[in-house]
TrEMBL record:
The chain crosses the membrane at residues 15-34. Keywords: ATP-binding, Magnesium, Membrane, Metal-binding, Nucleotide-binding, Translocase, Transmembrane, Transmembrane helix. This is Cation-transporting ATPase 4. The lineage of its organism: Eukaryota, Fungi, Dikarya, Ascomycota, Pezizomycotina. GO terms for molecular function: ATP binding; ATPase-coupled monoatomic cation transmembrane transporter activity; metal ion binding; P-type ion transporter activity.
Length: 896
């Protein structure tokens, strides 16, 4: 399989170390068996087989299966949110995420940009609306702008019309052309809207044709097109250019006054601003038919005239603020990485609470042509301080300000010691190229942080590949998925029904009635009693007009499939008597109907995912959300935490079970202790039910500030496993010695004889059963990451019932049960000792687990994700307010 990056994960290394850890105990147990066997002159070949059995049993063969079960359960849970994963080993990484990075346009903001209009057309004029800093704030509607601006908007784009008539390209450019009212036809011909033609040189112009395009480049930050006018006596060639305002300003013949103040006014308010420029070419000298493709881009895009600022609004997605609040409040560092203007990026970052303090931008100073200086500047340009990339960053700025860094600044810091410090304290990256996005993620990974990247476009591909958790958002809506799923369901049901019809006809049986869900696809008749009801239901889906049309026409044409045609033909050939018999059979065809429904339900149980058009981002990212909702990211992290906790828990439980097995297959085995078939069956069923319940535990709704343990090799987990193992071994040794004080130990033990109930194997069986129960119940970790053991009904009741059975057998509360399990009778004193020992074993393990958890477990986030006291206070106030509003709503509902 091809992975987005190297498939080697920490899980593989941990699994190897885990197996080596258990292997040491297996070798020690095998050595003990070998030494004891040799001293008692047992057959060497049999001893070798016993040693091999110990090694293969202690290294858990079920480990891959259990881990796969946990991951597959997570995949199924994510698919319910329309989230799909191509690299399942990355799911536990989602539970370790420290930094969550987001693209802006199309990810946090909507895909559909709103064209607000054209600004800057009043620059240099008197009487225009002006802000205190001189910015011209007037915005002209696109349909009311001058002819040159209209032609630039109509030509400076990369839209293409396919043969099928569909226009493909950037949604922003689609929105611009739609608001302009011009139509794109074949061969790149653009036609003005009826009644409003443009004018060039006083002549009416109805259409233009794009002759050559210079595509947008993230490095150049602009795009342009050369177009010729159509319909005039003499053709003229127009160059239309569109790009970043700071880039276009260097190409203008003259920069209008307050140019910079005007575009910054709109970017500070969150708008996306593109500068427009144009010029006319001398067609006779410069654009003869043979020279059009020899034009150099730098010549075409020079000496332009200013044509205004295209102002577009990017409204936030409905769930963006809520999703990022959840991430902020759950100990994650949230970062924005975008190619947009830094002022626009900071405005959106403030809306979604990525930044909440005064923000400084690290960029080149305004109007600096040397390309060597670097400064910290404030949003309003009132603060400006020079920065030397070779020196340490100012700690006061790092601690008191939120930082925005541009791609230009990142290049200046490349290879410098201060780069890691800069990455650690930056909240917003703006004007960065796709390669720089990738470098930012690599820098975060090199610093030891687990990263998440969420994007939706081609420019995010590199970053999505480099992140530990890359998430691509498609543009689907719940309604889209519902319609696609419904279409798939109809098609599937139709195929199943037609197979059933064919089967019935083959054996000369009456055809079953058409199910209600697909009755509208078949003609009315005796076998389609639900036709009218289905037609009405389909009409209601389309709206009142369709219902009225149906009632007026008393039906609409139906889709007649091959199966339906066969059904019609079969009904047409019936005699009146056969027709009456057919109707009677239809009335009594409940069994066939149920059979058909059962077949449908069985085939429809596994819902196949709806199909949407995938993009570059979804191909590169391990995770893809078919919905455009940002809430997919918290959902993935929730499931990742749940899977990570389940994985760590399985390692602990398997380690304890295998260590106990090592002791059982060595020391206990040599003491002649064996268990009956019924006893082994009960313990095996217990383990199977518990492992299944662990993997199927669901994550809790919210995201906790606490973080799950990232790996198994730490003081808490290793100490807990060894401590609990020591308690189990100590109780087993004590029990064995106590039994030997009652019943003398046999010197010559026949290890090959059949199982016979004895006091020793009966007592050891019950003690090991309670040890298994304690292993699952004590090491189960529920909240705050997933449902608690009480909420996990299968595991809770399984452990409860098994505990009742165990203590019932230890106290002989139900003697018949002891007989069924082939347990020997116990004296009153022995029952008291055994029961006490079982309680001591459980209590000792509980104390060790909880003691080590309290003193050695580390649920704290990494330093980069720690929230400031003022942020925590604000979050607490918001939660309190939300709780009060919820209580008021409940009170209002109760009164109603």
């Amino acid at each position: 399989m091809i992975y987005s990056t190297e498939p080697v994960s920490a899980n593989n290394v941990e699994a190897l170390l885990f197996i080596l850890f258990l292997l040491m105990f297996a070798i020690a147990a095998s050595w003990y068996v070998w030494q004891e066997g040799v001293s008692k002159d047992r057959k060497r070949s049999k001893l070798l087989l016993d040693c091999i059995l110990i090694v293969t049993s202690v290294v858990p063969p079920e480990l891959p299966m259990e881990l796969s079960l946990a991951v597959n359960t997570s995949l199924a849970a994510l698919s319910k949110y329309a989230i799909f994963c191509t690299e399942p080993f990355r799911i536990p990484y989602a539970g370790r995420v420290d930094i969550a990075c987001f693209d802006k346009t199309g990810t946090l903001t909507g895909e559909d940009l709103l064209v607000e209009g054209i600004a800057g057309l009043t620059l240099g004029r008197k009487g225009a609306a002006v802000s205190p800093d001189g910015a011209h704030t007037q915005v002209t509607k696109v349909e009311d702008v001058n002819d040159e601006t209209t032609l630039v908007l109509a030509t400076a784009h990369a839209l293409v019309k396919l043969d099928e008539g569909e226009i493909v390209g950037d949604p922003m450019e689609k929105a611009t052309l739609t608001s302009l009212g011009w139509k794109l036809g074949q061969h790149d011909v653009l036609t003005s809207k009826p009644g409003a033609p443009a004018r060039v040189g006083g002549r009416v112009l109805e259409s233009v044709q794009i002759k050559r395009r210079f595509q947008f480049s993230s490095a150049l930050k602009r795009q342009s097109a050369v177009a010729t006018t159509i319909g005039e006596e003499s053709q003229r060639y127009l160059v239309g250019v569109k790009g970043a305002p700071e880039t276009i300003s260097t190409m203008l013949v003259s920069v209008p006054p307050y140019y910079e103040e005007t575009f910054k006014y709109f970017t500070r308010n969150g708008a996306r601003v593109l500068a427009l420029g144009y010029k006319y070419l001398n067609s006779e000298a410069e654009l003869s038919p043979g020279r059009i493709n020899n034009l150099k881009r730098e010549d075409v895009e020079a000496n332009l005239h200013f044509a205004g600022f295209l102002v577009l609004q990017c409204p936030l997605k409905e769930d963006a603020v809520k999703a990022l609040q959840m991430l902020n409040e759950s100990s994650h560092r949230v970062v924005m990485i975008t190619g947009d203007n830094p002022l626009t990026a900071v405005h959106v970052a403030r809306q979604v609470e990525i930044v909440d303090r005064d923000t400084l931008i690290l960029d080149a100073p305004e109007h600096d042509t040397s390309k060597t200086r670097l400064v910290w500047r404030s949003i309003d340009d009132k603060f400006c301080v020079d920065v030397d990339p070779t020196k340490p960053l100012d700690e006061t700025i790092l601690q008191t300000k939120d930082l925005c860094v541009t791609g230009y600044a990142l290049e200046k810091f490349r290879g410098q010691k201060g780069l890691r410090d800069l990455l650690r304290h930056t909240w917003v990256y703006a004007r960065v190229s796709p390669k720089q996005k990738e470098d930012i993620l690599l820098g975060m990974k090199d610093a030891g942080y687990t990263t998440l990247m969420c994007g939706d476009g081609t420019n995010d591909v590199g970053a999505l590949k480099q992140a530990h958790v890359g998430i691509a958002l498609l543009n689907g809506t719940p309604e889209d998925l519902s319609r696609i799923a419904e279409h798939f369901r109809m098609t599937k049901m139709k195929e199943i029904y037609e197979k059933q019809v064919s089967l019935m006809q083959r054996f000369n049986q009456p055809t079953p009635p058409v199910p209600l869900h697909i009755a509208h696809l078949y003609p009315p008749g005796p076998n389609n009693p639900n036709y009218e009801k289905a037609m009405l239901r389909e009409a209601e889906k389309k709206g009142p007009a369709a219902v009225a049309a149906l009632q007026q026409a008393n039906g609409i044409p139906t889709i007649v499939s091959p199966g339906a045609q066969a059904l019609q033909q079969a009904n047409a050939n019936l005699t009146p008597q056969q027709h009456r018999e057919q109707q009677a059979k239809v009335a009594a065809a409940g069994l066939a109907d149920r059979l058909t429904s059962t077949m449908m339900e069985q085939e429809l149980d596994e819902d196949e995912p709806p199909t949407l058009k995938l993009g570059d981002a979804s191909v590169a990212a391990p995770f893809t959300s078919k919905l455009a909702n940002v809430i997919a990211i918290p959902n993935i992290i929730r499931q990742g935490r749940c899977t990570l906790v389940a994985t760590i828990q399985m390692y602990k439980i398997l380690a304890l079970n295998c260590l106990i097995s090592a002791y059982s297959l060595s020391v206990i085995y040599l003491d002649g202790i064996k268990f009956g078939d019924g006893q082994v069956t009960i313990s095996g069923m217990l383990m199977s039910v518990c492992f299944l319940s662990i993997s199927r535990a669901k994550p809790v709704e919210g995201l906790s500030k606490e973080r799950p343990q990232p790996n198994i090799f730490n003081v808490y987990i290793v100490g807990s496993v060894l401590g609990q193992f020591a308690i189990h071994v100590a109780t087993l040794i004590y029990l064995s010695q106590y039994v030997y004080s009652i019943e003398p130990r046999h010197e010559n033990i026949d290890l090959e004889k059949e199982f016979e109930p004895t006091l020793l194997n009966s007592a050891v069986y019950l003690l090991q059963l309670i040890q298994q129960i304690s292993t699952f119940s004590i090491n189960y970790q529920g909240r705050p990451f997933r449902e608690s053991i009480r909420e996990n009904r299968g595991m809770y009741w399984g452990l409860t019932l098994t505990s009742l059975v165990t203590f019932s057998c230890a106290t002989e509360f139900i003697p018949e049960l002891n007989e069924k399990l082939r347990l020997v009778p116990f004296t009153f004193e022995f029952k008291a000792v055994l029961t006490t020992l079982m309680i001591v074993d459980y209590a000792g393990c509980w104390l060790i687990e909880n003691g080590l958890k309290r003193f050695f477990s580390d649920y704290r986030p990494k330093d980069i994700a720690i929230r400031r006291p003022d942020q925590i206070a604000r979050e607490e106030a918001r939660r309190l307010k939300e709780k009060e509003e919820e209580e008021r709503e409940k009170e209002a509902t109760r009164k109603i």
